[in-house]
């Protein structure tokens, strides 16, 4: 027997329709590439998105066509999020931090028909435009006054002209199957070609509903949300959608991601929640500390993308009264998988024990099921000790890549490539990326634990622990460290700092001090580069 409830497809346009109807006066504030602050409401944004949808149709964009974007976080990018997906086309966000050749490869592979980009990326796009075989229209996300007098791109279109060309904002978002593709994001592809993950309307709306919950990203109509995490990579962790779902005020930082610009915007707009990778928060915390500043409205910050060091957590929580929400996810998971919000009884624990739990990557949000398996493929216990590869499945987990040749799944589960433990309360703790694990005498050493300890040293700005080849143990941990500007720190003092904090045999064999650690396009440390450079560091020289 079927239930007798309405059958309504889960479509992305419904999020914007909801925001317009129920939170129409709520503000969307953007720091623009042009240099000023722009303000509009959800009602205005929705009306412009409907005009944009018609303008895209007039350019010939049809169902399933890919529209690429290379853009910062801002209201025009948000309009594209809704107008492209809402009209049945596919929004393809491209990461401008990728190498130009990789960008061309991705845009080609995705067969982007239209490419919309911010003014700051004009030189980048001009340099590659002639190589973009499938792109028929290039759209500069600005107004007529900021269009270049001449451009190497023939027929370059002006975004505001496109919107103005559609006088009528009455337009009904089409209804279609909720499994229709909505947006596309490629993994960073540190090895081999990037892989395309094609989200659907259904997966996105379900991800949006689950991610806004109090035990997930915890956002509401009373919040002012500033996503630092870019809209050009995994949909800014879904915040452009979840903010509409709850009717939160949105504040977009545009290209201003340095500590000073962010702090100014937090204060001037009354931001209550932000979200970003640890490297961004480092810059912000340094700026706030050096200048003796405070956060007067910030209540929570969501940190993920790579492990949040406990030292950063305590800086936010103890010094600034900002709660850290540690989250884990992947492009293949839209991206949210787990969130580290404490359960009731855990709140009563002494602070060190609480911190130890918060340092873990957290519990599954409803909709994501997870397990860890050993090398024999058998599931390992949830005892907080046994570790194994993390496998997930759920409503917003990739089923196959756009390449589509071979299913990545193992018996219906997606192997994440992360190595983790899960404790009896369901808190998952990533100990390593499988490819970064250090195998010393056949035993695994988790590099993240070691990095977290190093990061707690007051003179350490950044730390990466990598496997270096060793004549006796095959591999031993080697710590690569960037010191804080002006700080004094000797090798032995840093190694001594590990005493009592970690098993002796986990202590790194040596420390190398470097000026900088290479970061990838999504802010993660490129450990394979460090391995290439230092893998023989522990071998006898000469
Ligand atoms: P990529 O494009 O490189 O796949 P993703 O953003 O999808 O980038 O990265 C996913 C990976 O990032 C995860 O598999 C995990 O290794 C790492 N990661 C994400 N969040 C965390 C976290 N909170 N702690 C540790 N590692 C994390």
From TrEMBL:
PROSITE patterns: AMP_BINDING
InterPro entries named among the record's database cross-references: AMP-bd_C (IPR025110), AMP-bd_C_sf (IPR045851), AMP-binding_CS (IPR020845), AMP-dep_synth/lig_dom (IPR000873), ANL_N_sf (IPR042099)
Matches recorded under CDD domains: ttLC_FACS_AlkK_like
A Gene Ontology BP annotation from the UniProt entry: fatty acid metabolic process
Residue ranges of every copy of the AMP-binding enzyme C-terminal domain listed in the record: 450-524
MF terms (GO), sorted A to Z: ligase activity
Leader peptide range in chain numbering: none
Protein keywords: Fatty acid metabolism, Ligase, Lipid metabolism
Stretches assigned to the AMP-dependent synthetase/ligase domain: 17-401
Sequence similarity: Belongs to the ATP-dependent AMP-binding enzyme family.
PANTHER family, per database record: ACYL-ACTIVATING ENZYME (PTHR43859), BUTANOATE--COA LIGASE AAE1-RELATED (PTHR43859:SF4)
Protein name: Fatty-acid--CoA ligase
Record organism: Hydrogenophaga aromaticivorans
């Amino acid at each position: 027997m079927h239930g007798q409830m309405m059958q309504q497809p889960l479509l992305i346009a419904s999020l914007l329709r909801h925001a317009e109807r129920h939170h129409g006066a709520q503000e969307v504030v953007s720091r623009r590439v042009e240099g000023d602050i722009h303000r509009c409401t959800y009602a205005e944004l929705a009306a412009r998105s409907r005009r944009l949808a018609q303008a895209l149709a007039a350019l010939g964009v049809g169902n399933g066509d890919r529209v690429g974007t290379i853009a910062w976080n801002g209201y025009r990018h948000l309009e594209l999020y809704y107008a492209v997906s809402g009209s049945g086309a596919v929004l393809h966000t491209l990461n401008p931090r990728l190498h130009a050749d990789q960008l061309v490869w991705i845009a080609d592979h995705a067969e982007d028909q239209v490419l919309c980009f911010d003014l700051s990326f004009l030189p980048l796009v001009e340099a590659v435009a002639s190589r973009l075989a499938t792109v028929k229209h290039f759209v500069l996300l600005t107004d007529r006054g900021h269009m270049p007098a001449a451009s190497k791109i023939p027929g370059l279109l002006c975004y505001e002209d496109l919107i103005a060309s559609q006088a009528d904002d009455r337009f009904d978002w089409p209804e279609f199957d909720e499994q229709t593709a909505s947006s596309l994001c490629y993994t960073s592809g540190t090895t081999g070609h990037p892989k395309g993950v094609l989200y659907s309307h259904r997966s996105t709306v379900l991800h949006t509903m689950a991610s806004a919950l109090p035990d997930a990203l915890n956002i509401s109509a009373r919040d002012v949300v500033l996503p630092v995490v870019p809209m050009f990579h995994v949909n800014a962790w879904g915040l452009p959608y979840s903010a509409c779902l709850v009717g939160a005020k949105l504040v977009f930082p545009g290209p201003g991601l340095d500590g000073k610009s962010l702090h100014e915007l937090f204060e001037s707009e009354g931001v209550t929640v932000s979200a970003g990778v640890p490297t961004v928060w480092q810059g912000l915390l340094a700026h706030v500390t050096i200048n003796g500043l405070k956060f007067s409205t910030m209540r929570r910050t969501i940190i993920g993308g790579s492990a949040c060091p406990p030292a950063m957590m305590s800086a936010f929580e103890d010094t600034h009264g900002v709660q850290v929400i540690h989250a884990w996810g992947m492009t293949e998971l839209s991206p949210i998988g787990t969130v580290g919000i404490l359960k009731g009884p855990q709140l009563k624990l002494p602070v060190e024990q609480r911190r130890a739990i918060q340092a873990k990557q957290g519990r599954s949000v409803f909709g994501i099921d997870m397990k860890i398996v050993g090398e024999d493929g058998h599931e390992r216990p949830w005892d907080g000790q046994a570790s194994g590869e993390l496998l997930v499945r759920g409503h917003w987990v990739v089923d196959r890549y756009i390449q589509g040749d071979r299913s990545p799944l193992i018996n219906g589960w997606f192997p994440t490539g992360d190595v983790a433990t899960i404790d009896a309360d369901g808190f998952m703790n990533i100990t390593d990326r499988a490819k970064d694990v250090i195998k010393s005498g056949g035993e695994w050493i988790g590099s993240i634990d070691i990095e977290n300890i190093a990061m707690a040293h007051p003179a350490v700005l950044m730390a990466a622990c990598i496997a270096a080849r060793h004549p006796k143990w095959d591999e031993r941990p080697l710590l690569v460290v960037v010191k804080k500007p002006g700080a004094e720190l000797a090798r032995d003092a840093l190694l001594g700092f590990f005493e009592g904090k970690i098993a002796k045999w986990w202590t790194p064999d040596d420390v190398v001090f470097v000026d900088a650690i290479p970061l990838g396009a999504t802010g993660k440390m490129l450990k394979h580069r460090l391995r290439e450079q230092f893998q023989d560091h522990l071998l006898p020289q000469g």
